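Take a look at the protein record below with the fold in mind.
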Amino acid sequence: MKPRIGIFGGTFNPVHTGHLIMAQDALEVFDLARVLFVPCYLPPHKDASRVASAAHRAAMLGKAIEDNPGFEMCDAEIRTGGTNYSIDTIRRLRGLHPGAELFFIIGSDSRMELHQWKEIGTLLKLCRFVTFIRPGFDPGHSAPKALKLAPGARRKLMQGVVTLHQVNISSTDIRHRIAEGLSIRYLVPAAVEMYIAEHNLYKT
């Protein structure tokens, strides 16, 4: 049987409890050997000036997952530097894990943007996408035709939709709360909360 590896890419600015719950659900639902968290160096579709450094984000992620043997951080995109695209990362990971079946973990909001991703058709052939429905997501957006992809790609994406623990936590809200001087307790692991305070992140 081929080993199954989950790939969870993102900015993780910062990593929060919702990320960890989604990864744990993926681990159990798809019987994965482990989940690789892949923090990006520069997010291709976000304002880089609002993103903490890759070093800080990787450090927080490391602290968040260190006590879970099923979680592992992959710093491939950080080591490469610059803007990385998912297709390039998946090709790299297939080389590092020959014979493994790769499961690409995304949220339902990201699924609506897949038609804009670089070489999405090839990417769908190289790994299996699993989509976790986010709280407040419009069910109408789950219709195959809403995905703006070829029929074959739409069918593949519809096969990996999961609705489990829907935790309404976002990195954007966490950053806003920090800037406003509000508590982020329980929204992030305690070690991440302490790291943010020690390094004075997201104050402005």
User: Anything to note?
Assistant: The domain at 4-168 is CATH 3.40.50.620 (Rossmann fold). The mean pLDDT is 87.
